[in-house]
Structure formats: C-alpha cells, structure tokens
Write a structure and sequence with these properties.
The chain is built from five helices and two strands. With about 130 residues, it is mainly alpha-helical. The chain has one domain: Orthogonal Bundle (Multidrug-efflux Transporter Regulator, Chain: A, Domain 2), CATH 1.10.1660. It has a two-stranded antiparallel sheet. The longest helix has about 35 residues. The protein is elongated and about 80 Å long. The chain starts with a helix and ends in an 18-residue tail after the last helix. The model has no long low-confidence stretch (mean pLDDT about 90).
Length: about 130
C-alpha cells in the first residue's frame, strides 16, 4: 500500500510516516518501479504500536528500543515493563509536585480572599504573591 493509504488506515499523516521511517521506527518501505513507497499490511500494526506507546507517554526513542528488540527476534516484555515502571514513577512524582503546587496556590488564594489594596506598599507589586 502507498503511504497515503497507510496514513489513512493507521490514523496518521504521510509526513509523520516519513518521519518514522527516517528515525528507524518503520523499516524502509519497498519502492514501486515509479519510486513510490509500498508498505506491507504489517506496517499498520507497527504504526498502531507506535501510537499506543506514545499514548502511554513513551518517547519515540523508547518505542524504537522496543521495536529493535522485537525486530531482533526477542520478546521485549521485560524492557516494556521496566519502561512502564519508570514512566509510572515519573507520573507519580509529577502528581506529587502538582499537589504541592495546588496547596501553595490555594494558600495564596486564601490569603487574598479579602483584598486590601491599601495594604500594599509602594515597593510591592502585590502583597499576595
């Protein structure tokens, strides 16, 4: 199938697929006699996997590592588990940071509940921050 057909079938864009091929996420497609890329049906599943990896928050470099393991005939399950564990830890840290930020902003907001512009000195932009 040509690149436009693959893009439509995989819910992607031709430009994105060329980028994936350039980065080694998609193997180079065979070329027709007129020079058009000619992808196999397997490319749809591969692009779908790339999209699922991105949806899980993995980088394209991490997704490529997984694909390389699979392309060398090995199951990438352990590697995927390690990546997902790492990603989960990162997300938990981000959530903790966001919780702390929420508490800080809530405290600032509580302190500004009854604004008193007269209490701001000339050297302050706003005493509530």
């Amino acid at each position: 199938m040509r690149i436009g057909e693959l893009a439509e079938a995989a819910g992607s864009k031709a430009k994105t697929l060329r980028f994936y091929e350039e980065r080694g996420l998609l193997p180079p497609a065979e070329r027709t006699s007129s020079g058009y890329r000619d992808y196999t049906a397997d490319a749809i599943a591969r692009v779908d996997f790339i999209h699922r990896g991105q949806a899980a928050g993995l980088t394209l470099a991490q997704i490529k590592q997984i694909l390389d393991i699979r392309d060398h005939g090995q199951a990438p399950c352990e590697h995927v588990l390690d990546l997902l564990d790492s990603r989960l830890s990162e997300i938990e840290e981000q959530i903790a940071q966001l919780d702390a930020l929420r508490e800080t902003i809530a405290a600032l907001r509580d302190g500004a509940a009854d604004p008193d512009p007269e209490s701001c000195g000339s050297d302050l932009v706003c005493r509530y921050l």
